[in-house]
């Protein structure tokens, strides 16, 4: 009997392939931060609840990307503003307990500092994912994760044995289903002939697009090496890695932000601002780029104040606040310089009026 495509398991849902391979811990961790995107779904267990949100120990991904990451010691923050209020609970955190299984959407990823924030709002998911976010039961854990646990606890389980035990593997329609999922048609089969590729393949399947993704991945590895050097105090080596990343991928946002931070740390404020602004041109919503640029603009404004360029400095403080309205240094600097400019204007006006009065009296005397 041919299972319908709406069947719970129309094809074999398998544990991630790396479970059956000897992939180093660091490489698996780096691959997750490389591949995870905003809008993806993760599943975790609450390990800590604070007044500003709760922390998850990540167990696996769900949705499109399927990875089991429980052994990678990954943590994610769900801020209180990302937790919907539920029913009679005025405090949204009162509904949750340590140990609860949580399904959440990825809100933001800081790839080079390796920080993940998640959200329980449905709007955080990509449009084609229709999964309920929040507390889930153990039975609702992703199938691939449950099968991974089984394989991890039973050394006799092999990839082939798990595959043959899946209901979806025995579905007579599985080939038709998978062909439809990847967009391959029996009537228009794909070909390696260039004359046919332009008609049957999407733009992202061409070598130029694939090479661009490979370059971005390679550049990100250089950024991670640079961050490691920076943490160890090796600033020259860190700068070399960031420059190498930008040679590979000219507009790599993470490399620009990391290099900008290093410039700012060394006191090269103008160069840091340039890198942060270019990063925001390529990714206007990059949180760290906004935050660092806001801080650096305040520092540059202080330099201009020392040079008596008050109006220009005021403009930088206003721009810093527009990027990060929670920046207390920018707010304080703007308030002080506004008062200073006002005092100088009053003094200048008083001097000018006094000068005119003296002139009028002088000519009146004659």
From TrEMBL:
UniProt keyword Metal-binding present: no
Protein name: Tetratricopeptide repeat domain 14
Keyword tags: TPR repeat
Pfam families with a match to the protein in the record: TPR_11
TPR repeats: 219-252, 253-286
Single Gene Ontology MF annotation: nucleic acid binding
Lineage: Eukaryota, Metazoa, Chordata, Craniata, Vertebrata
Domain S1 motif, chain residue ranges per copy: 39-121
SUPFAM superfamilies reported in the protein's UniProt record: Nucleic acid-binding proteins, TPR-like
PANTHER family recorded: TETRATRICOPEPTIDE REPEAT PROTEIN 14 (PTHR23184)
